[in-house]
Design a protein that fits this description.
Length: 298
C-alpha cells in the first residue's frame, strides 16, 4: 500500500471513529425517547456505514481551519442522521422496498414498517435539534440548519426521491436522470462539504469551491452505485444487487451504457479536482477521496 493510500485510510478511519463516538454520545443522552424507538435509532445509526458524507464534513472543516472543531463534529453527526433517515425511508415497501442495507436487515425488517417510519422521522428532527442546541454560535447554527434543510428538503433529496419514484418503468433522458441524482444524492454531498466549511469559518469563495466539489463527487458516487448495481454483488454493496433493473429504475448504465457511464464518472472526478485546485496540497485527502470513489467502478 502506498503512503498516500495508507494516510487516506487512516484518516478515514479516524473520521469514522469521531462520527461514531459523537453519535454514541448523542444517543446516550436521548433519555426521553421511547425505548423501542431508541432501539431503532441505535440499530440504524450504528450499522456499519461508510460515513463518506460525515467524513467529508470533518475534512472540509479541517481543510479551511487546520483542525476539526466541535461544531464540525455536531454538523457531521447531523449529516449522518439525515442520511440514515433517508436510507430507512428509501428502503420502505412504499419506496424502494429493500430487505438489506449496510449488510444487515433493513429497519422495517428488523422492527416493523411503522417503527421504521417513526425512526426515520425521529432521526431527521434530531439532526436539526442538535444543530440548534449544540453549535456554539447562533449565527453558525442558523447557517448549518439552513444548508441541511435545503439539501434534504422538497427542493433537494426529497425532490430527487419523488422524481426517482415517478421515473420507474418510464423511459427517461440523461438530463432527467441527472436532475434525479443531483437532488437525491449529490446535494447532500455538497451540503456536507459546505457545512464543514462553515463550521471551520471559511470565506465565501472557499464555501463555493467545496460546495461544487461535493456536488461533483456526489453525482460521481451515484454513477458508481448505478454501475455496481449491475456488476457488483450484494455482499460488496451491503444492499440487494440488481434491484434497480428489476424495479424498472432509470440508471446511468441503462440510459447511456456502461462505458459512457464510466467516462462520465471520470469527467465528474476531474471537475471535482478542479474545484479544489486553489487549496493546493492541503486538499490532498479530498483528492484521494475522488480517486477512491472512482476506483469503485473499475
Amino acid at each position: 500500500m502506498s503512503e498516500t493510500n495508507s494516510d487516506f485510510d487512516s484518516q478515514l478511519r479516524r473520521n469514522i471513529e469521531v462520527v461514531n463516538n459523537i453519535l454514541d454520545r448523542l444517543l446516550s443522552e436521548q433519555s426521553g425517547v421511547e425505548p423501542r424507538l431508541k432501539k431503532a435509532f441505535t440499530y440504524t445509526l450504528k450499522s456499519p456505514g461508510k460515513r463518506v458524507r460525515s467524513a467529508l464534513t470533518l475534512w472540509s472543516c479541517e481543510l479551511v481551519s487546520g483542525k476539526i472543531n466541535a461544531n464540525a463534529e455536531i454538523a457531521a453527526a447531523a449529516v449522518e442522521m439525515v442520511h440514515t433517515y433517508s436510507l430507512v425511508h428509501d428502503d420502505l415497501p412504499s419506496m424502494d422496498d429493500d430487505d438489506l442495507r449496510r449488510g444487515q436487515p433493513t429497519c422495517h425488517k428488523a422492527f416493523d414498517e411503522a417503527t421504521a417510519i417513526l425512526a426515520g422521522d425521529g432521526l431527521l428532527t434530531l439532526a436539526f435539534e442538535i444543530l440548534a442546541e449544540r453549535v456554539d454560535s447562533p449565527k453558525i447554527a442558523v447557517q448549518l440548519i439552513c444548508e441541511l434543510a435545503k439539501a434534504a428538503g422538497g427542493s433537494g433529496m426529497i425532490a430527487g426521491q419523488m422524481a426517482d419514484l415517478q421515473a420507474e418503468n418510464v423511459e427517461s433522458t440523461e438530463e432527467q436522470l441527472k436532475i434525479i441524482h443531483t437532488n437525491k444524492t449529490a446535494k447532500m454531498f455538497g451540503c456536507a462539504a459546505v457545512m464543514g466549511a462553515i463550521a471551520g469559518g471559511a470565506g465565501q469563495s472557499q464555501i463555493e469551491c467545496l460546495g461544487t466539489y461535493g456536488l461533483k463527487v456526489g453525482l460521481g458516487f451515484q454513477i458508481a452505485d448505478d454501475i455496481l448495481d449491475v456488476c457488483g454483488c450484494s455482499e460488496q454493496l451491503g444492499k440487494t444487487a440488481g434491484k434497480d433493473v428489476k424495479a424498472g429504475k432509470s440508471t446511468y448504465p441503462s440510459i447511456i451504457g456502461m462505458e459512457k457511464s464510466r467516462q462520465l464518472a471520470k469527467i465528474l472526478a476531474d471537475e471535482a479536482l478542479e474545484a479544489i485546485a486553489s487549496f493546493g496540497s492541503k486538499a490532498d485527502l479530498l483528492r484521494k477521496l475522488v480517486t477512491t470513489l472512482l476506483e469503485r467502478i473499475r
